[in-house]
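**Fold tokens**
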Amino acid sequence: MIRTKAIVSDLTEVPREWVYENYLKLQEKLTGQNLMILSPFNVADKRPSFGIYVSEKDNRTYRFRDFSTGISGDGISLVQNIFHLTTRGEAAHKIIEDYNQYVLNNKDDYSHREFKVQTKYKVIQFVKAEWNNLDAKFWGKFHIGSRLLEKYNVFPLSSYTMQKDSDGYIQELVIIGRHNIYGYFRTDGTLYKIYQPYLRDTKFIKVRDYIQGTDQLTYKTKYLVICSSLKDMMCLMKLGYKDLEVVAPDSENTLIPVHVMNAYRLKYQNICTLFDVDQPGILAMENYKNKYGTNSVILNLSKDLSDSVRDHGVNKVREELTPLLKQALQ
């Protein structure tokens, strides 16, 4: 009797991990862990900026986010972008064909692979610190003073504790004694993000979802500007514009939800984006334009608004930015 390997005809029969391992040529098997690799969409990527992670909504589903280009999605989106396919249907068809060919030529059995979602460290407590000269020096570079820091609930931290549960064993990580650690808080005192500006890999630690600046909105101005960070938000407010308010999503690559944008449209005459002038920032502004019809402001001074204020000063930035804002919000 001649035995043949099973041929699949439905995408649901293709192991979700196989899509990433095959098309990204991963050296590491995906068994529930998160992974960072060099971007397959950006040949200039020098540091891993392409994240593969298990979706919180479905603990068996891998998704990806490319922080260098702003591209994100599921396995079908990955294949669609790699091969520049027009539709998701084309990508799904290619995955099925390629997987069947793989099954005929390989022995790897995904049905017997152990899959266990790895737990992540979560911030469980923190200790605020007193402001010092190092803090004043850091924020002063961006012309951000105590009034703005207080308005947006930014406070220095002397320590914070992270914890995770690994198979019933509780692991704790206490960060203490570093300089320039800042907690971003909501008005009610809830910590939503930790900012460590001098650490490259853990510059931001997300604690919970929050559209930055929401607590400070009065809905009494004509315009809303969407920035890329809280620091950029504070720099924009430092410029003294009285007829606009400002918010920032968790990151440039995070689109503000449709229902929130619809609510903003009812409150403001117009909305625009003001993101970084690098590739991810430009792409993010294009995504907002395509989805919501928002105009973009491209300030070609430094990488972002806060760096522009640091490098060129408040007056120069205001001189360059004002006509751009007027054009975008008219």
Summary: Residues 88-105 form the longest helix (18 residues). The mean pLDDT is 89. The longest strand covers residues 154-166.
